[in-house]
Amino acid sequence: MKKRLLLLLCAATVILTGCWDSIELNDIAIVTGMAIDPGKDKKYQLTVGYVNPAQYSKQNPAQGAPVSIMTLEGNSLPEISAKMNVGVSRRLIFSHTRALYINETVAKDNGVSHFLDSLERSPQFRNDFNILITKNHTARDFAMINDPVERVPSLKVQKSIKTLLKSWGGDPRVRLTDFIDAIIAEGRSPVASTVVIEGDPKKGQNAESNMEVKAPAKIMLDGLAVFKKDKLIGYLSLDDTRNYLWTQKLESTMISIPCEEDQDDENPLYFDIVITNNKSEMRTEYKGNQPQLKVNIFSEASINSMQCQKDLSKIATFTELEKKSDKQIKNMITETIEKVQKDYGVDIFGFGEALNRQHYKKAKKVLPYWNEEFARADVEVDVRIALRRSGTRSKSFISDLPKKDAED
Amino acid sequence: MSKKLVENISLWQLAVLMFTFEIGSVAVVGVGTDTKQDAWIAVGVATVLGAGLVWFYVYLLQQLPGRNLFEMITFCFGKWLGKIIGLLYVYYFLYISARVLRDFCELITSVIFESTPIEVISITMVGICAYMLYLGLEVFGRTGEVFIPYVFTFIILIGLAILFSGEFELKNLLPILGDGFGPILKHVFPRLLTFPFGELVTFMVIIPYVSHFAKAAKVSVFTVLVSGFIIIYGTLIEIASLGARQMERTVFPLLSAAREISLLEFIERVDLIIVFVVMFGIITKVSVFLYGGLKGLEHIMNVPYRYMVFPISMIIGYIAIQISANNAEHIEEGIRFIPLYMHIPFQIIFPILMAPLLIWKVKKQKRRSDANGSR
Amino acid sequence: MVTFTFSVIFAGLLLMIALIDMFIWQQSFYQCISKLFALDQGANEGYVIATAAAGFIYSIAMDYRIRKNKRSQQS
Prior knowledge:
The complex is a heterotrimer.
Chain A: H1 2-16, E1 28-38, E2 44-51, E3 67-74, H2 77-83, E4 91-93, E5 99-103, H3 104-109, H4 113-121, E6 130-134, H5 139-142, H6 153-167, H7 176-184, E7 191-199, H8 201-204, E8 217-228, E9 231-236, H9 238-248, E10 253-258, E11 270-287, E12 290-306, H10 315-343, H11 351-358, H12 360-366, H13 370-375, E13 378-389, H14 404-407
Helix pairs in contact in A: 4-7, 9-10, 11-12
Chain B: H1 11-29, H2 39-63, H3 69-77, H4 79-112, H5 118-135, H6 137-164, H7 182-197, H8 203-206, H9 216-242, H10 244-249, H11 253-259, E1 262-263, E2 267-268, H12 271-301, H13 305-322, H14 327-374
Antiparallel strand pairs in B: 1-2
Chain C: H1 2-25, H2 29-37, H3 45-74
Helix pairs in contact in C: 1-2, 1-3
GO biological process, one term (chain A): spore germination
Main location (chain A): membrane
Signal peptide (chain A): 1-20
């Protein structure tokens, strides 16, 4: 009996440990960023940036580059990434990828769907990395720029996007599955963030650049890339991105609004409001044969700065400022929507999906050619800002200054 | 030959087995994906119908208390015809258990153990099931009892975690019933009714061994309703977090939904919990089908089923690999062939045909025994 | 008896798979059967075949034991 048990235990150790898929921790390299460029001979050129773990040891951090990169060419991403070990000693693990940089020429010419499929199919990739379109420089450069604070460039980009989204809102919050969903959806077109390099990318690659106070090169966010199906067709500025986000899901933003509509250009006066809570709703309707796009926005805000001479302890001032901000924000958002309608003619906002949810029968008819319908639709934006409070001061000291008119 | 062992499981154990049986493979492959955002409605309709079906099965069993499906078949059709029909049922049960096993193997090989050969997973899993059944139905029931709290809490927690990580978008559920009830009904019958609910026909082998048989009908119908609710809950999670379009594309929807979880940027990558739930569900399901088949063989061949547990389960491990050459074939068989030509005859048509015969024979027997008693 | 059961179940299930394959692949019966028995080169089918063979040997041993028990009971 004992012998049998022993035999069983031996068999169990062999069968149950799952040794086929075991990889030791010191045999893996964690990839944080991937960059896709057009290849010279083959279809793509893939660059992976993987972490140098010695840099992160607490006791005696090694000197040297925090990440290391490797570039190869090939026809598909899985093929290239499996081949990476021609130059990398360890097995690459992609499940912690933070950023995917796509060169704008790839996105313009080939379209992105060919490699997105492999990312979605692979069980390694999670749905938590940012898709970034790189402008002006090759995507490869972006994977190499060091950052003094975060050290790993892709971590820096992701963190900066996350923080920007919380404080101001400049990233469409698009992840892989959302992006793919938007490509195949009839009532929505995909968008992605864009990044640019400010400074000299050659200098930024050097690990010693981390010693300098002013980094020689920096990765900066630069608004939105607009796609039609899976091809890049244009860009939106950072301000438009914020306005775009306002129609979707905005966490918080800061906006400055002129005190008077027709003020002199020499010394314009502004007041700032911070949006703390935002709720937006899209409605799409048909009036006869004319599509109507409606956005209802309700935001709670508080005043953060005041350059004009208004008395904030009075209700009338609050009402007046609310009205001004309503109008300003309404104009901004309408302008953005109309710009997208006119310049690109693709529905990045998801009005078609709203139509599908609200008027299913109508949507079934018009969705196949929805982008044309979107381009000719009337836009109506309804904004209601509720100013709640004004920081730790009620009246601004500026309002006690002698009035400008009195000086003259 | 050694005498037959009379095994008993409690009502609670029966409920646990039924519950895990129901949610097991639903958690792997997902249900109702063809009906897009209305999948949860389809599941609801199927649950109600399924509860009716289960009540019908127990009603049949109540006519002949203490006898299982195979003994009932022999009672109705006589010795030889009964043996042939019983053998068909045995083949059906064993084939489905191999299919379920293959479902799980596909999940493991394509998500977790990419380079482990699928054959090894199949053998180890079927080994566990065989060992459990070798120890007997009581051990099987107790195993279920031990694991059910984890399964239940994990499924509930996954849903809450998705809700709190902000991936839960109720917008995805709209428009409700956009195309009307037609597509839903088409999907419910035959596929949804037979896949998670009709398969409970196997429990016709287990229910007679419940200690309080009188309450079995109530308990099993109630369990089916509860598990139906859990399946609706799971489907809602899948639709709301993935969206209908993506749910259609994924092979393992609940697992993909669990991958979206990111709570406070601290609780992340919890998809292995789903794999745990799935693993236990699959073990239960394979074991129940295997037990059904073995009990049938016991009745037909007159050999205690414990002697046959290991050889037959080895065949299951082999068949699970041979059943299809690739995942696409496996899925296509599951959609085109199995529901129409296997589930419906064995789950619905045959029991319904058997019902009048059974009632008639029981009445005749009672009359005869009454006559005997009065004499 | 166990060996007999084993063979009946094994043959029956293989036949069933072959019939379903005929339906799905639209091939002749002979093709499907030969596909089942052809060893895929490179696939690890050997593992499952070995276990199935082990099951067969086990069932023979089981039959032997049953017979021995019966004889000892009779004597």
